[in-house]
Write a structure and sequence with these properties.
Helix content: 25-40%
Number of domains: 1
CATH architecture: 3-Layer(aba) Sandwich
Number of strands: 5
Oligomer: single chain
Strand order of the largest sheet: 2-1-3-4-5
Shape: globular
Largest sheet: 5 strands, parallel
CATH class: Alpha Beta
């Protein structure tokens, strides 16, 4: 059985995160269907609701959530990754933060933090091959 990883990040980083999903070692699979581009260009409320529900379902299918965070130079974004991270935390799904600390919840003991994807990949996934 494969273990699921939900990659959460800014939508404009989708291609980058899609490449990271392809780097997951044997035994791991991405549950983040938003990486396929299925949500591209969604603007009407009904479609956005559908996208949000799909993301929550994908998170429920995951064994770990990786939140790709941003520094202050990025400015305001929609913040969906914060909701996704909080949802995973509420479900008891382990959270890995890649990048700078963005909020108080990134300091919780159950949250693991790495500066780069390469570090997270090595420490969190490479050794857990199933």
């Amino acid at each position: 059985m494969k273990l699921g990883v939900y990659l959460a990040g800014r939508y404009d980083r989708r291609r980058e995160l899609e490449a990271y999903a392809a780097q997951l070692p044997e035994g791991w699979t991405s549950t983040a269907t938003w990486l396929t581009g299925a949500h591209e260009g969604a603007t009407d409320p009904a479609t956005l609701r559908k996208c949000a529900i799909e993301d929550l379902v994908d998170i429920r299918k995951s064994d770990v959530l990786v939140a790709f965070t941003e520094g202050p130079e990025v400015g305001h974004t929609s913040g969906g990754r914060h909701v996704e991270t909080g949802f995973a935390m509420a479900l008891g799904i382990p959270v890995v933060v890649v990048g700078p600390v963005e909020n108080v919840f990134h300091h919780l003991h159950a949250t693991r933090r790495y500066a780069t994807w390469a570090e997270a990949l090595e420490e969190e996934f490479a050794w857990r091959q199933v």
